[in-house]
Amino acid sequence: MAADEKAQARTEKAKGKVKETLGRATGNERMEAEGRAEQSKGDLRQAKENTKDAFRH
Fold first, then answer.
1. Cα dist. 21→2, 32, 37, 44 in Å?
2. Burial (Cβ within 10 Å: 0-12, 13-18, ≥19) of residue 56
3. For 30-40, how does the pLDDT look when each residue is reduced to its tens digit (9 = 90+)?
């Protein structure tokens, strides 16, 4: 389960980066903001998984 969550976090971060870059390139501020939000969501998910791993060992 943890591997799935970590993979999902990496996917969210990557999708967010693409959205942010695309939004910036096209001048679409909303898409750029959505990309940053997705990246933050991925960062939070990754931090949660790292915390869980720390307490498992």
1. 29, 7, 13, 20
2. exposed
3. 999 999 999 99
Give the residue carrying structure tokens 């959505």. 34
Both tokens of residue 50?
């790292």
CA distances, 8 to each of 2, 26, 28, 29, 42 (Å)? 10, 27, 25, 25, 8
Report d(CA 9, CA 26) in Å as an integer. Answer: 26
Low-confidence ranges of the chain (pLDDT < 70): 1, 57
Note whether 46 and 13 are within 8 A (CB).
yes
Q: Which residues contact 5 (CB under 8 A, 6 or more apart)?
A: 45, 48, 49
Pairwise CA distance, residues 17 & 9, whole Å: 12
